[in-house]
Design goal:
homodimer; alpha/beta; Rossmann fold; five-stranded parallel β-sheet; 15 strands; 43% helix
Chain lengths: 525, 525
């Protein structure tokens, strides 16, 4: 049994708050420190924290904090099937989709690892039948495009991951189908995607755990109407990813159904059938398997008690220090890889929906800050956009850089003596040093204060295995921070009120709600 | 002559800080307030601030603050040609691209309004020649796709605006060419776009004011190599948008050149030839003209001294109150319109690059917060992502909602008794009320504290005129906030150090810079 106590009751947290001010980054960073602060991750990646405001003493206190909050112990309990989602009384089992971490998890006669593997095997069989042409569209055409219909966790993760590996898969000769995504209930979204498709060769995946997600059902209706309007049989063009108890399960309206369950939260579901179906169809099952293997490698590191061997734990601890001791309110995720263009949007959900909480696991108000704002865009684009504020604004925002040595596919060109890849990576190295060390200038407007901390995740090339490790790193970091803050990172009660009030509007509301609805053209008919 | 003084020296600012705590939003909001707090904008839009934490007294003090900081007076001076960009000693004339606000601006014999109009007329003539087939590709093919090569202000604004109007233009029968964008120096970006193109029918627009932007020149090299490799003559497939003094001006390497100048900052350049060339080619000159007209309508409102008749000024003042008195550190822009998917990314640059400053106009350090973090994604998608933190996180983030009564194009469907449009707008109305009013619950985990302020910009339909007004609103809001904070919103010295250090890396750096470069595969050859 672990004990669940608030961050501010930890002795080491008080010690941390009383610790000497953070070291001057400019004085701290030198080649030795850059070399020493390298920690191996899964998937061939490394985590470098040389530009974080933590010296040896600080790391030592953070390690004690990890022990006091029993962070690794709780991670092990979670992996072993403890009911970590206390609010909803659910286990948290997304790790099992990529491998066991603490033995089998069996409840009421169900072996969950075997269940998730079984669903993955079903996905594989289906995918092979589609790729081989055994399963065809209702007019006998082969499927060439797969369209995921889902929102939130059923959209952001799979979409970001597809974009991340689309071109790499193409270079490997593995790109089997093009993938598209429909999420927003704004009908302009679905129409935009549908207008660009050859419907007769398109396969749709409807993803909703509950089978009742308003946006997703509305988009399904829209898609079915369009298919029928083109003389196609919707039931031959659509599969479902849902829970076994949902209205969508085992319905003749779908070619096939693949299952997850309540123990895999939406934002943690990319490695379940939610990501598995679309990614395997588009990029091949082999690619998805390598992606899972990379995630599992990274998960195994999360069992290490020593933060210097557990990059997600260390990243989490540094983040807590920056948030709760140094008072920094946000985190910017800055991948120097265009293919990771939507990865920050996925992390935005993962982090902010998990840890944007104001009560602890027992539902008591807490007196310290929890999850930060998360934002980000790929570099070098961001340098020409919001970096001005990051360098010279009045708030300090910790930065999480991501970079790779090699291109995913492209032939490169030489321009003014260097390739585009060299320019990209030179800029990344330059930014880390510019942010941390700054530069004096007698003109205050050209003065860079420095002291703006960052970490760097880097690897040789962004492939499926590296991407799996990258995703798992952030998932595990978020979970570790939830343990430090003593909050439940697995529910999302904050989204309920809006749903309730939207229903009221559609049924006919009064008061201010009706006034706003009227401004938006509702109820004017 | 206006006088330039810091925010914290204003008498009304001290008064504001001493003002009674903000009213309880739940008690404040009722149908009367929603009706009263409507302010007309340009382009048929309205600004509603009913869910902002400001009562009549607070608005009165904010109005005095606007007077004390001479915010409208300074806007008028800016429009009339005062050197507002003091750091770089430049005028700020982007408003002139859409019409005069304070008479002609003439310096050293040049009438800038006439100059910008002249360039727009050149764009129009060129666009008409392309659309009519008078100008063809080097193999005699008509141009069907236009590709903008630019970064930062030459990319984010035009890209967001194109996406905003692409489908509306299609519905109007105005969509003339498809537009694509290449920005990142990561060669995977350009290769990804080029792989999807028919090069013989593609026209490229190279956009760089200085003509020396590293990323843009590298991408130009890459594109020219690809064109030549396909037996095409690059000089017949490329135009330039640049300044008259740049190395790109009037070069035989381009079919045509269109000019802007140093008085139009990159992030404010969407209404100049930077946006004009690509948007007119893709959406037609008529669409771009309507867009400019909408922006001009909105600009005219920015000359009003009364904040209740000047929505950008009021929005700016409420933002300053939230930032500097209530201590809120970020702003979320939440358009309930899928076509505005990249509009928040443009505002992120516009706002954070303009006002992420720590010194005043005279280069003196200031003691108060300036520009906030800006982030955002379209609704309802965001509701299934980061809204959890917005509702129940430990920080309060002011929200800027945007919504429209009608779809841009799509046929809609009925699902469970309502259309997708009705669901979308019901959710928007619901969120405003949920954030501001909250909901009590004995279970603290299900308790919504409320008190989370928002504003709403709304209109009948997102068309070209409405989009122009929307863009100008935010541009003018940012400028007004810069006047309140007494900072220069028009330079970006914070981006220089990174450029300098990247150059060092490419030339062979030492120390920590070299260590990071080595981690990223540089210098290992």
């Amino acid at each position: 049994m672990a004990s669940y106590t608030n961050l501010d009751s930890a002795k080491s947290f008080k010690e941390l708050a009383g610790h000497a001010p953070p070291p001057d980054l400019a004085a701290l960073i030198d080649p030795d420190r850059v070399a020493i602060c390298e920690i191996p991750m899964g998937g061939g990646l490394s985590f470098n924290y040389a530009a974080s405001p933590v010296d040896g003493d600080c790391i030592a206190i953070l390690s004690r904090l990890a022990e006091e909050q029993e962070m690794v112990e709780k991670f092990r309990l979670l992996a072993g099937g403890e009911m970590m989602n206390t609010g909803e009384k659910r286990l948290v089992l997304h790790h099992l989709c990529r491998g066991e971490l603490a033995g089998p998890v069996v409840r009421d006669g169900r072996d969950f690892g075997a269940f998730y593997s079984g669903e993955l095997a079903k996905v594989r069989t289906f995918v092979e039948s589609v790729h081989s042409g055994k399963i065809l569209g209702s007019t006998g055409r082969r499927f060439e495009t797969v369209v995921q219909i889902g929102i939130g966790g059923s959209d952001l993760g799979p979409r970001a991951l597809y974009l991340a590996l689309e071109r790499w898969s193409k270079a490997q000769g593995r790109l089997r189908m093009q993938a598209r995504f429909i999420s927003n209930v704004d009908p302009d979204d679905a129409d935009n995607v549908l207008a660009s498709l050859d419907l007769a060769s398109s396969l749709f995946i409807l993803v909703s755990k509950s089978g009742t997600t308003q946006e997703t059902l509305a988009n399904e209706t829209l898609v079915r109407a369009r298919l029928s309007g083109h003389g196609l049989d919707p039931s031959k063009h659509m599969v479902a990813v849902t829970s076994e108890t949902s209205p969508l399960a085992k319905s003749p309206r779908y070619l096939a159904s693949f299952f997850m369950d309540d123990y895999i939260g939406g934002r943690y579901s990319s490695t379940s059938a939610v990501g598995g179906a679309v990614l395997s169809l588009a990029l091949g099952f082999e690619t998805f398997s390598e992606f899972l293997a990379g995630a599992h490698e990274e998960d195994l590191l999360a069992l290490q008690r020593d933060p210097l061997r557990n990059p997600a734990l260390l990243d989490a601890l540094i983040g807590v220090y920056e948030r709760n001791v140094l008072g920094m309110g946000a985190t910017a995720v800055l991948p120097y890889a265009e293919s990771l263009s939507r990865f920050p949007a996925h992390l935005q959900q993962l982090d902010m929906e998990s840890n944007g909480k104001r009560v602890n696991r027992r539902g008591e108000a807490i007196a310290y800050k929890t999850g930060p704002l998360v934002l980000g865009e790929p570099g070098t684009n961001g340098q020409h956009s919001f970096y001005q504020l990051l360098h010279q604004g009045t708030d300090i925002i910790p930065l999480q850089f991501i970079g790779f040595c090699e291109n995913q596919i492209s032939p490169d060109v030489l321009c003014e003596g260097s390739t585009s890849r060299e320019k990209l990576n030179a800029n990344l190295a330059a930014q880390i040093v510019a942010f941390s060390c700054g530069k004096g200038d007698t003109n205050a407007n050209k003065h860079f204060p420095g002291g703006r901390p960052s970490t760097l995740i880097h690897g040789q090339k962004l492939d499926a295995r590296a991407l799996g490790a990258l995703l798992a790193h952030y998932e595990n970091k978020v979970v570790f921070q939830g343990f430090a803050w003593n909050i439940n990172s697995f529910d999302q009660e904050g989204v309920q009120l809006g749903k309730l009030l939207a229903k009221k509007v559609l049924e006919g509301a009064d008061g201010a709600l009706a006034s706003y609805a009227t401004l938006l053209g509702l109820g004017r008919k």
